[in-house]
Amino acid sequence: MKKKKIYLLATTAIAIALIIVARTALTFAWWSFVIPLIGLGMYTSWRKWPVPAFLAGFLAGFVLWIVMNIYFDNRGGGVMLQKLSELATVPAPLVLLVSGIIGGLVSGLACHTGRAAWAAPIKDNHNL
Amino acid sequence: MKKINAGSLFPLTALILLIYILSHQLADIFPLGKMLDPFIGAVQNNEGADPAARRMDIDGLQLHDSAAVYFDSRRVPHIYASSDNDLYKVQGYVTATLRLWQMDFLSYASAGRLSEIFSEGFLDYDRGQRRLGILEAARRSLAMIEKDTATDRALTAYTAGVNAYIRGLSYKNMPFEYKLLDYKPEPWTKLKTVLVMKYMAFTLSGYEEDYSMTGMMLALGEDAFNKFYPDIAGPVSPMTPGNERGSEPIQRRIGRPGYLDYSFLSTRPVVQDHTYNPKLGSNSWAVSGKRTRSGHPILCSDPHLNLSLPAIWLEMQLSCPGMNVYGVSIPGTPAVVIGFNENIAWGLTNGADDARDWYKLRISPDYTSYLIDGKWLKMDQHTEVIMRRDRKPFYDTVYWTVQGPVVNTESFSQHPELKDHALRWALHDPSDEFLTFMQLSRARDYKDYREALTHYSCPIQNFTFAGRDNTIAAVHQGRMPRKYPGEGKFILDGTRSDPVSRSYIPQDSLPAVVNPSCNYVFTANQPPADGAYPYYYNGYFSENRANRIRQVLEKDSLADVRSMEALQLDNINPFATAAISVLVAVLDTSRLAPDERNAVRLLRTWNGAYDASEERAGLFELWWRNVKNTVCETFRSYPFFTRLPDDYVLLDLIRDKPEDACFDRQATPGKETARDIADSAFREAWKLYSSMKSKGSVRWADNNAVNILHPTNIAALSRTGMPSAGYPEAVNAMSSGWGPSWRMVVELGDRPNAYGIYPGGQTGNVGSRRYDEFVNDWNKGHYYHLQFFMTRAEAAGAAGGRWLLK
Question: Quick check: is B203 in a domain?
Fold first, then answer.
């Protein structure tokens, strides 16, 4: 159980690192980070890591989108999140939550796609 | 053996679908994926990205020599270049940095291209713009400009500067509105610059009421028409010859043109056009040093325009050999439009002339020819292609006659009453207004100023002037057609060629005043010329502000910057006091209740100032509104009715002809007089006013909310509902959607001492706290000291951000 948690945390951390590198070093389309995440999914499958790939990816995207949106917003004077919430007529935390879900879904699906694509015979393959 | 698992196709498909959905605008919601992406999305538009605070070296402008931009504490750029060419290039670059989306959007709106940005709802608007001939007019003007080396070079340089900025943009640092509306900036062109200028002409000279006045003339007859709709109403202080008393313009009797009969009227009701506001006015005046405390001349200018965020103006200082000018520019166009240099200052007010005429045509049913002087001429036609977002292009055929475009036709008609009429509009004539502003920037004296004005034609503006040598002047500048009295007031006969071939009033005969004996000049959209002026002109003039400005300037023999600011913020509407004295005189006070009598007493002590805390202004407004709602009832039944006679015409009737038939209510058996109207109007007003007072506030500011709207009308990007002092007929012409868009006071001398403010902020970036930085101060009537640097070294010493450009 503990081992699984460690793998989950490690995969999430790697996913976060990959997204940051992809999003800051490269200037391709906004979704370009899915490519390394698919690779990460494949890697976990190849190395037979007992890890729910979707969950790891989702956590990475969810946390990163929320934290980075807060970070960039605060660093830049904190106007845009407020404007977005006024535009969408919803509270600012909800805008952050939606951003987290979007980041999470795309990242999670990317990891899961990679893991599913690399059809390794993993005993503890999960349903995700 | 490991292999790619076919079972991954499902999540892969889901992933692709999800990315697609998040990348596109769906059901008018911005693309969520891109917009909420923290690395390139909306949060990247925060002020942290504001480059105006930094010290930077910027390459890629291909300047002849390096140039510098120093930003002061309010982010006003002070641009230093070694040639005109470099200067306008850097101006284009800096303007785009601060306002790219705004100027780009304005060029789309002007050309009739909004369907390229919005997939729904703007096709009719675009067709209307194309048919009005705005895009065609811009093309013609550009063709003319390209023949003038100086303007063409400036426009080319400005365009290159804007494009240098656009080239450096990626999604991450793109203005927020592009992300919101999901499109990209296109390369800037000289045509787009001309389109922005035409847009100004479009809003400032677009008002007319030819069709409505045609109907009124036919329905009322000459006598009544001249009584109710005279060219000039009320007390007038004309611009020339220095506003001495007793020099009012001549009131000319307007005859019914011989050709005008009922065939000129359609059975359809007139469609009111809310695009144009006849009250879009301005104030500007200059006081000679003989009447100022310092002995130096002072020039003031505050153009009243639709208030928008980002603001229509952008403040800057432009400096190169032979030029050192400070003022406001219109984003998208080179040079400054209102401003000053070491030697001169100039201001602008709208000329308010009647610039549009309609000609009723005889057209063949298939629109291939039209009749003129008994001959059928071939109709010019061309196809306008309106590109549409997510749809096939729309093709519209636009017809032109010798008079101008046939705006409303069988296939498309925003104004059915003007179907098959040709529009003649000075805006269509090729013109180069840029040259005027470029030359004014360098002007050293009165002679240079007059020379600069000769290039200016549309929209007609009053250019006020003050020179360091104490010369003051004002010119009603533009192409004023020579007209017979009443010409252009009614629909013209398009089957004859004689009203088409017009000549214009010569440049040296335009209404102008220089160094009048009173030692001040002023313009506030009043009739420009006095009774001695030999030419006929007509327009949509305003009297109240000009009268009030004259009243104050006459008394103020020792003007200074503070007293001039106070005049720009003056809230007095002279009509209110005039009206109260007439209305109270006819009122039957014996029929009033004690509280009503008390209210009348309070009104009589009011000086007509629409100050923020004033409570009486609201009561007067209600009273006068009720009076207007009940007079001239028969007029309102005409399908071509659009407006009541001028306030002063009604007031004169109440005072001089209280028994006039215009006061009789149709629904009552008796015959009402002005007294009955004033009585019932007051009682109703008092009832409503009392109930408003018991429920909330009747302070004027609380009932005079000002809104500064973003071009998309999105509330989150606008400032709305700001309680404000002022009134459209007061010098401080504040109203719900328009008002003083740039208050400027300049005292010339050894060094210009200037103050100014506009409702907005230098940056158009909605993610910046500076986006609406000046708005609150503007609404409170504060001014900023304008930092005019005499030398580059001065600018370098005082500045915050600094860019070095190559």
Answer: no
